[in-house]
Amino acid sequence: MTEVPKASPSVWNGPNVLTALRVVMVPVFGWLLLNEGGANTTYRFAALAVFLLAALTDRFDGELARRYNLVTDFGKIADPLADKALMGMALVGLSILGELPWWVTVVVLVREVGITLLRFLVIRSQVIAASRGGKAKTVLQTVAIALYLLPYDGPVRIVAMVVMAAAVVVTVVTGVDYLWKVLRSRRSRSA
């Protein structure tokens, strides 16, 4: 008896729609954040709401794709790009407004773009799965950005800076760890 091969899931599935929605939210978020120089409280809270909604779609699209076997090549590529676009817009926007030092934005974005490119370079030979550290990095970045988006100074800003400092440290450490894993894997395969 010949086994019928399983059909690939459609690109137009729930997880990919959530990813596409996140991409659409990025310019909306950016406009809300930068409108009136970031000084309008209503726009800031709206930017926070859009950012958190977009971050939630990131949380659920991958989980749904794995749970219901809806993983697609499109999703493997679009999901990390959508994540980087959202975080990038937040970091760059906060730096444009003078609320986040540019060096933080540069360090985080260089790591994020570098690891994303690394993943694409090795995608045929190995999958670089998200580690616990990578997940912690995402949570720390999201919390730090959400705190920075709040239109408050004082204790909230101090907490935002502390959480962002932790996020930067974890971002760099996990970036080095990913790079090390790829290099070690390549060496062991060539040996």
Automatic annotation (TrEMBL):
Give the chief site where it resides. membrane
| A GO molecular-function descriptor | CDP-diacylglycerol-glycerol-3-phosphate 3-phosphatidyltransferase activity
Q: Which EC number(s) does UniProt give?
A: 2.7.8.5
List the subcellular locations: Membrane
Q: Which stretches are annotated as coiled coil? A: none
- Topology with regard to the membrane? Multi-pass membrane protein
State the Gene Ontology BP annotations: glycerophospholipid biosynthetic process
InterPro entries under this entry? CDP-alcohol_PTase-I (IPR050324), CDP-OH_P_trans (IPR000462), CDP-OH_PTrfase_TM_dom (IPR043130), CDP_ALCOHOL_P_TRANSF_CS (IPR048254), Phosphatidylglycerol_P_synth (IPR004570)
First-level EC class: transferase
- Give the family per the record: Belongs to the CDP-alcohol phosphatidyltransferase class-I family.
* Protein name in UniProt: CDP-diacylglycerol--glycerol-3-phosphate 3-phosphatidyltransferase
Lineage, broadest ranks: Bacteria, Bacillati, Actinomycetota, Actinomycetes, Propionibacteriales
